[in-house]
Amino acid sequence: MLPAEKSTRLPMQVVFGTINSFPVGKSNDELERVYLHAYRTILKLFYRFPKINFTLHFSGMILDWLEQHHGEFTSALTEMIKQKHVELLLAGHFDPILSLIPRPDRIGQLEYMSTRLRKLFGQRIRGAWLTEQFWQQDMVSSFSSAGIAYTFLDDYHFDQICPEPNKLHQPCITEDQNKTLFVFPVSHQWSSEFWQTETEVLLLRLKKLAIDNPGKVLSIFIDAQKGLGSSEKRDDRLIKLEAFLDGVQELQDQDLIKSVLPQNFVKVEADWPLHYFSCTNWQEMQNFTRLEKVKGQFSGSIRDHLMHFPEAKQLYCKMQYVHSLVNQVRGDKYRKQAAREELWRGQYNAPYWKGSSNGPIYNRLRKTNYSSLIKAEKHTREKGIFVPALFATDFDYDGLPEVLYQGNEINAYLHQRGGNLFELDYLQSNFNYLDTYADQVKQKNGSAGTALAAQPLRSFTDCFAPPGSELQSVIFADVQSKIKSLGAELYRIDELRKESFSVRFVADYNLLQFGKSFAISIRKTYTFNKAQVFVGYQITNHSSGLLKTVFCPSMFLGFKSDEPSVLHIYRKEGRGKTEERLKKDEQLSESQEIYFEDFNNRVVVHCLVSQSACWWQHTIYGFVDPTANHYQANQFSPRWLIELEPGFSFDVDISLSFTRLRTTSSS
Length: 667
Prior knowledge:
Elements: E1 12-20, H1 28-47, E2 54-58, H2 60-69, H3 71-82, E3 86-89, H4 103-121, E4 127-128, H5 139-145, E5 150-154, H6 156-161, E6 172-176, E7 179-186, H7 188-193, H8 199-212, E8 217-223, H9 224-228, H10 234-253, E9 257-259, H11 262-267, H12 282-289, H13 302-306, H14 310-327, H15 333-345, H16 363-379, E10 389-393, E11 402-406, E12 410-415, E13 420-426, E14 431-432, E15 441-442, E16 463-465, H17 471-475, E17 484-485, E18 492-497, E19 502-513, E20 516-529, E21 532-541, E22 547-551, E23 555-557, E24 567-572, E25 579-581, E26 586-598, E27 603-622, E28 630-644, E29 649-660
Parallel strand pairs: 1-2, 1-8, 1-9, 2-3, 4-5, 5-7
Antiparallel strand pairs: 6-7, 10-11, 11-12, 12-13, 13-14, 15-27, 16-17, 16-22, 18-19, 19-20, 20-21, 21-29, 22-28, 23-28, 24-25, 24-26, 26-27, 27-28, 27-29
Helix pairs in contact: 4-5, 8-10, 14-15, 14-16, 15-16
């Protein structure tokens, strides 16, 4: 028991609550386990403390799942809300980083969740939780437009403008375009250290804060899923939380603290200070996500973060592009709403930034977002009206036009940097086969020290190697000085034929082989037809000497997994000839086809070459630490030894195509 403490001072006001969210793409069994361990358990515990008020945020996707699978939970929550025991906070329904998405989508997602909560619980919600705590001042007007009166920000935002060591920051008002918003500071220390700190220490700290800060406000939000979502330490942490609430009740009985609902706090007229907050900056992001340092300075915007993680940037560009397509839909409000909701699902935050959860490295998270964006794009296409098209546009905001093919069966996007293929959507499966991750990749069971450079993994990336090069040398082409990848070289668009869905890229390059420089030109012509990408190569030696080199264009395909139940890889020597199932990493003898049976999408992906070639085939993994492997992609490279006299050329054709998988067994 804590000793009685009588005081005539005003009690410190405490906003206490939980943040409840869960990564997309989890199975129903996994969600059920978290529900039983965390959400149901913590609500039952809160129900036993009717004198303590709680402020809760559930992501929109969790609430959708709870409504469908556990109506008893939402019924109990409704009762607690009616008793003014609990207040809910909304957010963007599909857990976006609000500062990263277009303003119409910000407002749309907030209003969508507000409407869902009002229908589900019979109450209009006026407070919002800021997902991942990424702030941007212009969000004030977005919140206001969605009917939001107040939000919560980590107190490091307040530290920047009014540092008060050992003192609690107080709520304030902020403004944008003549719209105002109440802002509560959230104690980052309490939120981040709660589950790791002894209960007695927490209660003593809380009591001291109450004595030193009478009448002020302390906001504490803990992550229920991280604390109780797994069986490890769950029972001990549940006992700890109950003991903490017992202590809070005692301090409240002593009038040292008073638990409050924020909606009641903002109703009271008070002289709130006016503050303006800067964007979340990189130093702050490192402080609360423990990100590794990277070269370059950040402006403070989450968008600047994208520049250091090309996979996240490419997903962002796809999201913005689909947003523009959705906005162009006219006349059919149901089709537009269906497209908009899929777009919003594709704005789920984790794959867009490498925070404490290392979101972009997880194949499942990226694939889920891409699937939603592809579905949204398909909804924008009016049946009977849409026709395939080939056109150039600056897709990724680099000042150079990319070439986009939009077909009935595939989307294919080409980049001038490398003249290669950076997105390949198979529309029937809503799957981007060039969604990969290359920030840090290694061979399975390899060491963290032998990593590829952080360049995007794109198909038809041209590579030249000295004759006799081994598999490992070409895999790590960007690290080995004798191997040259042209993935970062600029190709120019020489010809764009929209009517025949064909585009030709040309690059002039000085290739260094055995200490000599050779002037070469590379002409690669892409042609698209239904579910096929056809590439015709012509490499010409413009120097005065004999060029002897190995040409090995690299292809990458990212599947759901490399497990045998999901993926089989075969090589085929020729029509009607031997087929051989391949291991994950090996060099192959001459053949004209390698193909992938994708059991997840019921698709076969074929790669055929016009001249028989030897092949390298390799599986790529990303890693968070040296012991954790995460499948990313399969690399496969045909290789030809070419000898070119001055003025002579080497011609070869390569195609990627999709067919439906007919077999039913993946054994």
